[in-house]
Amino acid sequence: LRFPQKLWRMVESDRFPSIWWSEGGRCIAINEELFKEEVLGRAGPPRVFPAMKKMKSFIRQLNFYGFTNMKRDCQRSASLPEFLAEEAAAS
Protein backbone atom coordinates (compact mmCIF):
# COMPACT_ATOMS: atom_id res chain seq x y z
CA LEU A 1 0.00 0.00 0.00
CA ARG A 2 1.06 3.56 -0.63
CA PHE A 3 1.56 6.09 2.16
CA PRO A 4 -1.91 7.72 1.90
CA GLN A 5 -3.66 4.35 2.09
CA LYS A 6 -1.59 3.25 5.08
CA LEU A 7 -2.24 6.58 6.77
CA TRP A 8 -5.99 6.30 6.15
CA ARG A 9 -6.14 2.79 7.60
CA MET A 10 -4.09 3.82 10.61
CA VAL A 11 -6.28 6.85 11.40
CA GLU A 12 -9.45 4.80 10.93
CA SER A 13 -8.16 2.01 13.19
CA ASP A 14 -8.59 1.97 16.96
CA ARG A 15 -5.20 0.26 17.20
CA PHE A 16 -3.22 3.51 17.19
CA PRO A 17 -4.39 5.98 19.85
CA SER A 18 -1.54 8.32 18.87
CA ILE A 19 -3.27 9.44 15.65
CA TRP A 20 -6.92 10.32 15.13
CA TRP A 21 -9.35 12.48 13.21
CA SER A 22 -9.79 15.89 14.75
CA GLU A 23 -13.21 17.14 15.72
CA GLY A 24 -15.17 17.50 12.51
CA GLY A 25 -12.94 14.98 10.72
CA ARG A 26 -11.12 17.50 8.53
CA CYS A 27 -7.68 17.13 10.12
CA ILE A 28 -5.46 14.37 11.40
CA ALA A 29 -4.23 14.98 14.93
CA ILE A 30 -1.05 13.34 16.22
CA ASN A 31 0.22 12.90 19.75
CA GLU A 32 3.85 13.12 18.65
CA GLU A 33 5.52 11.39 21.60
CA LEU A 34 3.07 8.48 21.61
CA PHE A 35 3.25 8.23 17.81
CA LYS A 36 7.05 7.98 17.92
CA GLU A 37 6.76 5.16 20.44
CA GLU A 38 3.88 3.10 19.05
CA VAL A 39 4.36 3.59 15.30
CA LEU A 40 7.88 4.74 14.45
CA GLY A 41 9.58 2.99 17.36
CA ARG A 42 7.90 -0.38 16.86
CA ALA A 43 10.66 -2.96 16.55
CA GLY A 44 8.88 -6.05 15.33
CA PRO A 45 6.19 -6.73 12.80
CA PRO A 46 3.85 -5.43 11.85
CA ARG A 47 5.56 -2.09 11.24
CA VAL A 48 3.20 0.29 9.47
CA PHE A 49 5.96 2.30 7.79
CA PRO A 50 8.99 -0.06 7.69
CA ALA A 51 11.42 2.47 6.23
CA MET A 52 10.46 5.27 8.64
CA LYS A 53 12.05 5.57 12.05
CA LYS A 54 11.96 9.34 12.61
CA MET A 55 9.13 11.84 12.95
CA LYS A 56 10.89 14.09 10.44
CA SER A 57 10.51 11.39 7.76
CA PHE A 58 6.81 10.97 8.55
CA ILE A 59 6.23 14.74 8.37
CA ARG A 60 8.14 14.86 5.07
CA GLN A 61 5.74 12.25 3.64
CA LEU A 62 2.72 14.21 4.88
CA ASN A 63 4.12 17.34 3.22
CA PHE A 64 4.82 15.42 0.00
CA TYR A 65 1.14 14.48 -0.20
CA GLY A 66 0.03 18.07 0.42
CA PHE A 67 -0.73 18.01 4.12
CA THR A 68 0.05 21.14 6.11
CA ASN A 69 1.24 21.36 9.69
CA MET A 70 -0.84 23.10 12.33
CA LYS A 71 0.61 23.15 15.85
CA ARG A 72 -1.89 23.18 18.69
CA ASP A 73 -1.38 22.19 22.31
CA CYS A 74 1.86 20.29 21.63
CA GLN A 75 0.14 18.00 19.16
CA ARG A 76 0.45 18.06 15.41
CA SER A 77 -2.42 17.98 13.00
CA ALA A 78 -2.51 17.87 9.24
CA SER A 79 -5.28 18.69 6.83
CA LEU A 80 -5.92 17.90 3.21
CA PRO A 81 -9.47 18.06 1.83
CA GLU A 82 -8.51 16.07 -1.28
CA PHE A 83 -7.33 13.21 0.97
CA LEU A 84 -10.82 12.94 2.46
CA ALA A 85 -12.50 13.20 -0.94
CA GLU A 86 -10.23 10.56 -2.49
CA GLU A 87 -10.80 8.10 0.33
CA ALA A 88 -14.57 8.73 0.30
CA ALA A 89 -14.65 8.01 -3.43
CA ALA A 90 -12.66 4.78 -2.93
CA SER A 91 -15.06 3.50 -0.25
UniProtKB/TrEMBL annotation:
GO cellular component: nucleus
Subcellular location: Nucleus
Keyword Nucleus appears in the UniProt entry: yes
Keywords for this protein: DNA-binding, Nucleus, Stress response
Molecular function via GO: DNA-binding transcription factor activity; sequence-specific DNA binding
Top-level taxonomic group: Eukaryota
Main location: nucleus
Domain (HSF-type DNA-binding): residue spans on this chain: 3-75
InterPro entries, per the entry: HSF_DNA-bd, WH-like_DNA-bd_sf, WH_DNA-bd_sf
Membership in a protein family: Belongs to the HSF family.
Name this protein carries in UniProt: Heat shock transcription factor, Y-linked
Source organism phylogeny: Eukaryota, Metazoa, Chordata, Craniata, Vertebrata
